[in-house]
């Protein structure tokens, strides 16, 4: 085994090794190299960068791993960087989706006039009743869960007809089995009144420049990740793809080196600091001899998987909408997007792709099903929704994500803290990102974590732990933008 040792001796910049080339890892590499703060090596198991935020082509159509947008709510530094990296290729696009509520299609994000005209009257009256009667409704007096928090805040109508079935589909659990944290991270509007105010702020004359809009790169969401990689590489970062991490050395409370295997064999890489963005469960298994309680906690932490179905149709466009949301349980897919509509691309002619998101864990029935059979189910589901596929279907291909979403069940917090506290106590290691901090977040949140991590590293590659703790408190307030 070769020993690739890179200590601080004989040089001025610390050597930082980043595990994972997803959004968080790429943003960290970009932040650390643009200012000459460190020498950076990025290790990635996949053959390319970007993780689940990369883009790829299906029959000439640029596709993403599901529905991705870059939200205007991003922190100013993050937003400014992305604008500078992409320039005119970063488009400001109107959100034009729709959702099935009460058996009818409603614009999503909700628009006041559309909701007033299209919501079934019984549904709309129930919503108003929930808002008026909220102060008289008996509050939950037992342990707080996702279910009780939403029921107390939003009332029974929107909880039972939208959020509850949607989360059952997404996480495969009853809302009573999900933690309060999911409501805090996932539901930004905690009352019907707040939802109405968000709709009012989208009215002409009251809407901000970015209200009801999102940023999207001309060549797919992965163009952002490609720009970050190019920036880091131009500033000296080394990227190692198709590289498996086989072991992480630990000497008491110090992380010493990373063992890897690639096409050239096995090697041992040392650095002044290891930044990990890989799933914390896998990270724990790689580190030498973790305590038994940490091993048990890591094994019990769950991620929700997903199958992405890409249906290739021989037509220019299926619908005018960028995304469709399906909360009802009778339809297994949770969302469908049409990639060409995100960037308003008209090319290639005569072909479009529909991307359906099917929440599913490895071992479940859908997971092992062949692509062509999944494609037939996809068209059947669309037919049930009143969206018949009349254009010729060329084929269906899939992507399977085993770690799509963290599962915030009722026991997750104590398990996460057991693993997280142990990792925090290891010198020479800093963990962040969606997979590292078990965070249900957006890409701009991952960038913010990476920038925060870079800000906590000094000239010797040491971490200011007090500063990092303050950043962690901010990360805990991140709310998912749908």
Proportion of helical residues: 25-40%
Global structural class = alpha/beta
In CATH terms, what is the fold-level topology of the largest domain? FAD/NAD(P)-binding domain
The tally of helices reads 16
Order of strands side by side in the largest beta sheet?
Answer: 8-7-16-17-18-15-19
Parts with pLDDT < 50 across at least 5 consecutive residues: 1-10
Q: Can you tell me about this structure?
A:
By secondary structure, the protein is an alpha/beta fold. The chain is built from 16 helices and 20 strands. It folds into 3 domains: 2-55 and 74-89 and 221-301 and 409-475, FAD/NAD(P)-binding domain (3-Layer(bba) Sandwich), CATH 3.50.50; 97-200, protoporphyrinogen ix oxidase, domain 3, CATH 1.10.3110; 303-406, Protoporphyrinogen oxidase, mitochondrial, domain 2 (Polyamine Oxidase, Chain A, domain 2), CATH 3.90.660.20. The chain has helices at residues 23-34, 76-86, 112-118, 121-132, 146-154, 156-171, 180-186, 192-200, 222-234, 280-286, 292-300, 339-342, 371-384, 412-424, 443-455, 465-475; strands at residues 2-4, 15-19, 39-43, 55-58, 61-64, 90-94, 97-101, 104-108, 213-217, 238-240, 244-251, 254-262, 265-270, 273-276, 303-313, 323-325, 335-337, 352-359, 393-406, 429-431. A 7-stranded mixed β-sheet has the order 8-7-16-17-18-15-19. A 5-stranded parallel β-sheet has the order 10-3-2-14-20, covered by helices on one side. Strands 1-13-12-11 form a 4-stranded mixed β-sheet, with no helix packed on it. β11 (244-251) and β12 form a beta hairpin. α1 runs parallel beside α15 (443-455), α5 runs antiparallel to α6 (156-171) and α10 (280-286) packs antiparallel against α11. The longest helix is centred in the middle third of the chain and has 16 residues, at 156-171. The termini are far apart.
């Amino acid at each position: 085994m070769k020993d690739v040792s890179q200590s601080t001796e004989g040089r001025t910049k610390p050597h930082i090794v980043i595990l994972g080339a997803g959004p968080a890892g790429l943003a960290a590499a970009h932040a650390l190299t643009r200012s000459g703060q460190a020498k950076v090596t990025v290790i990635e198991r996949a053959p390319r960068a970007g993780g689940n935020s990369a883009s790829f082509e299906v029959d000439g159509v640029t596709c993403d791993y599901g529905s991705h947008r870059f939200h205007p709510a991003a922190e100013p530094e993050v937003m400014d960087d992305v604008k500078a990296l992409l320039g005119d290729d970063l488009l400001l696009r109107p959100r034009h989706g729709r959702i099935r509520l009460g058996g009818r299609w409603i614009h999503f994000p909700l628009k006041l006039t559309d909701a007033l005209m299209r919501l079934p009257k019984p549904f709309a009256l129930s919503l108003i009743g929930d808002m008026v009667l909220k102060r008289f409704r008996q509050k939950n007096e037992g342990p707080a869960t996702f279910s009780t928090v939403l029921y107390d805040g939003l009332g029974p109508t929107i909880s039972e007809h939208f959020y509850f079935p949607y989360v059952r589909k997404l996480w495969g659990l009853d809302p009573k089995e999900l933690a309060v944290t999911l409501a805090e991270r996932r539901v930004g509007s905690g009352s019907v009144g707040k939802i109405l105010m968000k709709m009012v702020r989208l009215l002409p004359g009251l809407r901000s420049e970015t209200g009801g809009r999102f940023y999207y790169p001309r060549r797919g969401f992965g163009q952002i990740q490609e720009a970050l990689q190019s920036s880091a590489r131009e500033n000296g970062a080394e990227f190692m793809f198709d590289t498996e991490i086989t072991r992480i050395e630990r000497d008491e409370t110090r992380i010493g080196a990373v063992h890897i295997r690639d096409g050239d064999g096995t090697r041992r890489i040392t650095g002044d600091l290891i930044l990990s963005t890989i799933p914390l469960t896998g990270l724990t298994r790689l580190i030498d001899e973790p305590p038994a309680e940490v091993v048990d906690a890591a094994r019990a932490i769950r991620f929700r998987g997903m199958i992405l179905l890409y249906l290739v149709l021989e037509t220019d466009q299926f619908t005018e909408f960028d995304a469709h949301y399906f909360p009802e349980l009778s339809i297994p897919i949770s969302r469908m997007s049409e990639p060409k509509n995100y960037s308003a691309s008209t090319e290639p002619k005569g072909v479009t792709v529909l991307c359906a998101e099917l929440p599913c864990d490895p071992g479940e029935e859908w997971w092992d099903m062949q692509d062509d059979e999944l494609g037939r189910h996809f068209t059947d589901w669309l037919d049930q929704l009143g969206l018949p596929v009349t254009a010729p279907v060329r084929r269906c291909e899939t992507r399977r994500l085993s770690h799509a979403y963290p599962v915030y069940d009722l026991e997750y917090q104590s398990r996460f803290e057991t693993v997280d506290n142990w990792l925090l106590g290891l010198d020479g290691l800093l963990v962040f990102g969606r997979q590292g901090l078990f965070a249900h977040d957006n890409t701009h949140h991952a960038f913010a974590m990476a920038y925060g991590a870079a800000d906590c590293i000094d000239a010797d590659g040491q971490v200011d732990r007090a500063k990092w703790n303050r950043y962690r408190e901010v990360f805990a307030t991140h709310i998912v933008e749908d």
